[in-house]
Amino acid sequence: MATNIDGGTLMLESRLACPQCGHLSVEVMPTDACVFFHECAACGALLKPKPGDCCVFCSYGSVPCPPMQRQGRSCCGG
Ligand SMILES: [Zn+2]
How far is the CA of 37 from the centre of ligand 1 (A)? Predict the structure, then answer.
């Protein structure tokens, strides 16, 4: 294994796309936690992870959450 992903290469900004209105919001992801819920700033929709995804970033973001980037697996044992 020659995977060298460390703090320098993790993407911490993700663009969340609201499934209801398509509004894009750039959010900074926590490096070691899941974000289950995100409220759309435009329409107020509550975003929740799709089945099988660990957080809203993996479902709706342009970049998967840091634990997925780092370990290739979800941050909450799923
Ligand atoms: Zn929305």
Answer: 13
Q: Compute the half-sphere exposure of residue 44: CA atoms within 13 Å on the CB side of its CA.
A: 0
Q: For residue 22, is pLDDT > 90?
A: yes
Phi-psi region of 25 (alpha: psi -120 to 50; beta: other; left: phi over 0): beta
Condensed to tens digits (0 to 9), the pLDDT of residues 23-47 reads: 999 999 998 888 999 999 999 999 9
Residue written as token pair 């900004």: 13
Gap from CA of 22 to ligand 1 centroid (Å): 6
Rounded distance from Cα 51 to ligand 1 centre (Å)? 20
Q: Taking the model in full, what pTM does it have?
A: 0.80
Q: Is the pLDDT of residue 78 over 70?
A: no
Q: How far apart (Å, rounded) are the C-alpha atoms in residues 14 and 41?
A: 15
